[in-house]
Structure formats: C-alpha cells, structure tokens
Amino acid sequence: xxxxxxxxxxxxxxxxxxxxxxxxxxxxxxxxxxxxxxxxxxxxxxxxxxxxxxxxxxxxxxxxxxxxxxxxxxxxxxxxxxxxxxxxxxxxxxx
Length: 95
What we know:
4 strands; 29% strand; elongated
C-alpha cells in the first residue's frame, strides 16, 4: 500500500513540475504613459514608439486611465504559423 501511495505522490509531483515548466514562457515589459485604453487593448508610448498590446478578461491590474504611467508585462504568443516547404538553395548566374 505504501508503495502505491509513493508512486502516486511522485506522479503528482512530476505533473505539477511539468506544467510549471511548460508555463515558463519569457515575459517582457514596456513602461510609459498610457495613450489609449479599451476593453481589448492598451496603447503605451515608449520613446517615439506606440505599443498597442491586447488584453482580455484574464489581464490583471487596477483602473488605468489615459495619461497614467504604467508598466505592462506581456508574453509573445503565436496566433498562426504558415509553413512553406524548404526549397533548393538559389544559385546566382554570372554573365
């Protein structure tokens, strides 16, 4: 009986560790004044660039208003991937 309990505990610990490892996607941040905020995005000025970052119901944070200085933490996630077959290397002809 003890052997079975030990095995189940080991399996549980491994599954928790595996899920934590899989969720360890690199996090980035951008800091600056808010230019615009809506239910689905926030736009932040970083230097001369405007960063528009999507947000959803799972996004945490307080009540953000235009003009507030914020730090936005985000992750890059692929929404689609289009694959093209690898072709033979192109050669250049000399005349």
